[in-house]
Amino acid sequence: MADILVVAEIVEGQVKKATLSAITFAREASKALGGGFDILAIGLGVEKLAGELGAFGAKKVLVADDAGVKDYVTERFAPVVAAAGKAYGVVVMTATTNGKDLAPRVAAKLNAGYAPDITGFKGDGGKLVYKRPMYAGNAFGWMTVETPIQVVSVRQTDFAPAEPSGGASAVEKVAVSADKAAEQVQFLAFEMVKSERPDLAEAKVVVSGGRSIKEKFMDVLAPLADTLGAAIGASRAACDAGYAPVELQVGQTGKVVAPQLYIAVGISGAIQHLAGMKGSKTIVAINKDPEAPIFQVADYGLVQDLFTAIPELTTAVKAAKG
Amino acid sequence: MKILVPFKRVADPENANKVKVTGAKIETAGLEWKPNPFDEYAIEAALRLTENGTNTKARLGEVTVVTFGPAECDQTLRGALATGADKAIRVDATDDQLDGVIVARALAKIVEQVKPDLVVMGKQTVDSDSNQVGQYLAEFLGWPQITFAISVKNDGGPALEVVRVGDGGVQKVKVTLPAVITVEDRIVNSASVQSAPTPATHKYQDGVRFAPLPAIMQAKKKPLEVKKLADLGIDTTPAVKYQSYEPPPARKAGVKVKTVQELVDKLKNEAKVL
Ligand SMILES: Cc1cc2nc3c(=O)[nH]c(=O)nc-3n(C[C@H](O)[C@H](O)[C@H](O)COP(=O)(O)OP(=O)(O)OC[C@H]3O[C@@H](n4cnc5c(N)ncnc54)[C@H](O)[C@@H]3O)c2cc1C
Ligand SMILES: Nc1ncnc2c1ncn2[C@@H]1O[C@H](COP(=O)(O)O)[C@@H](O)[C@H]1O
């Protein structure tokens, strides 16, 4: 059977936008395979989301709504995905933190090979060939998965979010079961980072800062970010030093972003940082060192001290926006 | 506590932009071999868990490092032994015999032989950037996996308290051993890892430790066992195949602007992003 199963990413009762990118992949890939796709939602209370998820043209929305999957624990989610996934040719997850945690575990259960963090694919005579970044984005590999079931995680920045196509998928409840290993894991807490600003992975504009901004990190960047309706990001050095919260790290080890506009403020442009933002549409770099590598990828470079440039930029943007 | 740390050598990650990508392969000739940074972080975490931070000479447990690769990996293993690991294993194999699933299957066999209480490993290798081996291994062993760990505390009981990065925040879990833990870079921050006897007030230096010269000499006498991949008796059929490679799309060279106002004008009228 060549159908595709998309596992929705749901955090705190909300469907994450990364899911819509995975649906876009599933729509296109199911055309190449000549089948359809279904969506699986897991979590306590997710039945409420079946209507929302059913508007994208899936044949079915499978719902695992149970107290056993209230919190994300791999050993509780993976068996549910694997049990449902047996009946499909391709099982798709989001290349988010949880998706990257879950997908290889599910693949192992299904004796499947795994295509991690794909940024594209082509259909080659009924077979999918996946494109994925390697060497911090300095190379791309085209790969096939050679097992009867294939597991894939989809990089959000490279597939446009699916628009609802109308209609309503059939809803089907599925049972949950946990791995024996789940008994060894006690969930203590999830500390969600609440922010008024847009989600880093979903924002149209990102303002990112480096370690040179020091303790004033938020004071310097927040007015500009708020003027632009932007999310705030950071280099690893800024996060490591504690100037910015860890969840804001952009790069090979952090979040991958591809907004319309990325403004790098006092960031040198190490290859690991570039790995996370090189796909942005327009890149602006503000750095006092004219030789900083960030200028090699910037559409617009401004060689200035950030502490004078950023307040000035904030005022000028306000004026330009009227 | 007995800990196994899988360890891979990669082409110098600081110069990953110098790899030559031809259709048929990724050429790393000319780049030095370096330990995968995340595996160095894993070793540091394992060492901290098997010592008292105030007296790092007295070992409280045992750290075994294992790599799959050709003979030149021995040098990287000696480096790990010099920083404090107790034993090393190399499973002789060429890179083209391996993929993530094969490495995970082979690691499961090594776990059967070494019988560790815990596997600590990098969340990803920075050449393939696959981020999969730890998760496959945990499933093959039937153990819990705690991926993307940024903090591990051991209070002396049979469980570890681990903080991991999740989507939109951090998650705190308690895991009873045996388990597989994969680590983020932040695991080597000064107060990220704490063994039972280490006082809560103890602060390590940020980052991984370096081997002092005498330790490099002593490491030559530490055990390094070489095994054959074929002797592990695992299925070595590749689960995936790479067909071809391509370089990333080049970005058009941009321009330097002189003033903030010029920048704003360009963003508004040229890039049309304001
Ligand atoms: C395995 C691994 C993974 C990594 N993953 C990531 C990752 O995901 N993301 C990431 O970002 N990094 C990552 N790194 C780290 C990366 O190599 C760099 O160390 C880091 O990105 C540097 O951060 P930075 O640009 O803030 O600091 P620096 O490199 O110190 O650069 C500071 C810059 O600020 C400029 N500057 C200083 N003062 C001013 C001023 N007043 N006005 C204007 N400009 C000023 C300087 O000219 C300089 O260019 C990783 C490293 C490793 C080994
Ligand atoms: N050839 C190898 N030898 C030893 N360990 C490996 C090897 N390949 C991968 N690993 C381990 O698996 C982790 C994740 O790698 P990957 O899934 O390939 O990104 C690494 O950080 C290593 O700990």
Outline the fold blueprint.
The complex is a heterodimer of chains A (322) and B (274).
Chain A: E1 4-7, E2 10-11, E3 14-15, H1 18-33, E4 37-42, H2 50-53, E5 60-64, H3 74-85, E6 90-94, H4 97-109, E7 113-118, E8 120-124, E9 127-134, E10 139-145, E11 150-154, E12 170-173, E13 185-192, E14 205-209, H5 217-228, E15 231-234, H6 236-240, E16 261-265, H7 271-274, E17 282-286, E18 300-302, H8 306-321
Parallel strand pairs in A: 1-4, 1-6, 4-5, 5-12, 6-11, 7-11, 14-15, 14-16, 16-17, 17-18
Antiparallel strand pairs in A: 2-3, 8-9, 9-10
Helix pairs in contact in A: 3-4, 5-8
Chain B: E1 2-6, E2 9-11, E3 20-21, E4 26-27, E5 33-35, H1 37-49, E6 51-52, E7 55-59, E8 62-69, H2 73-83, E9 87-92, H3 100-114, E10 118-122, H4 133-141, E11 145-154, E12 159-166, E13 169-176, E14 179-183, E15 193-194, H5 213-219, E16 224-228, E17 240-246, E18 255-257, H6 260-270
Helix pairs in contact in B: 2-5, 3-4
| Overall 3D shape of chain A | globular
Order of helices and strands of chain A: EEEHEHEHEHEEEEEEEEHEHEHEEH
Radius of gyration of chain B equals 21 Å
Number of domains of chain A: 2
Which topology of chain B does CATH recognise? Rossmann fold
**Sheet with the most strands of chain B?**
10 strands, mixed
What's the CATH architecture name of chain B?
A: 3-Layer(aba) Sandwich
SSE string of chain B, helices as H and strands as E:
EEEEEHEEEHEHEHEEEEEHEEEH
What structural class do the secondary elements of chain A suggest? alpha/beta
> How many E strands of chain A?
18
Task: Provide the CATH superfamily of chain B.
Answer: HUPs
- What's the CATH topology label of the largest domain in chain A? Rossmann fold
Name the poorly predicted regions of chain A. Answer: none
